[in-house]
Amino acid sequence: MASLTETAYYTRRTINWVILAMIAYIVLRILWSVFVTVFLIIFPPKPPPPNHAFSVLPAVKFPKTASPSAQLTFRLETITGILPKASESANVYFMPKTPANLLALTKTQEFAKRLQFDPTPIQETKNIYRFDDPESPIRKLRYDIVSNNFILRYLFEQDTGLFLEKNLPLEPAARAEAKSLLQTYNLYPDDLANGSETVSFLKLSAGKLVPTTSLSQADAVRIDFFRKPVGNSAILTPFPNEGHVAIIFSGSSNNKKHIWQWAYTFWPIDYTTIGTYGLKTPSQAWQELQSGGGFIARYPTTGTNVTVRNISIGYYDSFEPQTYLQPIFVFEGDGGFLSYVPAVAPPWIEQ
Predict the structure, then answer these.
(1) What pLDDT is stored for residue 215 in this prediction?
(2) Comparing C-alpha atoms, which of 324, 343, 344, 342 is closest to residue 274?
(3) Which of 325, 171, 168, 340 is nearest to 258 (CA)?
């Protein structure tokens, strides 16, 4: 039978070994975690192959008035001096169409009435209806009863006395007023609420509104709304300075004259219905741009010689209805230059 001294001795040894074992386990676990992290950084796992869930995609719909990029001469000067690496694939998102609704016209009439238009519709096409304001004949509303897109327009060109009123809202007030207007009519979905907006000042010149830098010189203030990005990729419009949702306010105290224009075009995106597609290489997109295949979203102010500084992946949101939100290569350069090239690789996009 072991003495108390021997029992205490072996107990202390056991405790020591248990402590050493726990320390060794913790150290080995930390080292293993560091090893796995470093290994994944050096040898990242390959993404799953594209599933081409929507089969062949329709061609990206750039404006028909697009000018060919072949009119320009390009030079590449990125930070690294070479074309950047890009992902081999990207998500494509389904854009559902709004189904026809028997109550659509009735709801549109209610909307027109809230905006103080005569609710009696004037049919222009199968889906487009116009509403007039009998008290102000130069105020019009055109509404697509299927897509629920519309444009409200006050023909300010025919009301020269309007420009004597210069009580324009300051930038914060203009933002707040525009957001409130959208919220009031339930036209502020998460895509816009979590996106961004820009404020610009406009002045009348030769019968048209043109940008100006100062509120004191302005006759109107414009607020453009843009969708939230998809991950790190921006959603871009054909005219990058203009959002599909835009409101122009005047300085008039008359409610009917205060909104000169309210343009609303919003195509829903189903972020849960996704397909993955292989992309062109940056080299292929660069060659396509040089050969005249790119859409020039913004011409440079520096002439026809373009220095491209940055290349990234974005998504294209057309003014026209499209079935899918597709990725594009975005080329940015000096003088404000901006161009788009469709990113999905053949043969998975219509030519």
Answers:
(1) 86
(2) 324
(3) 168
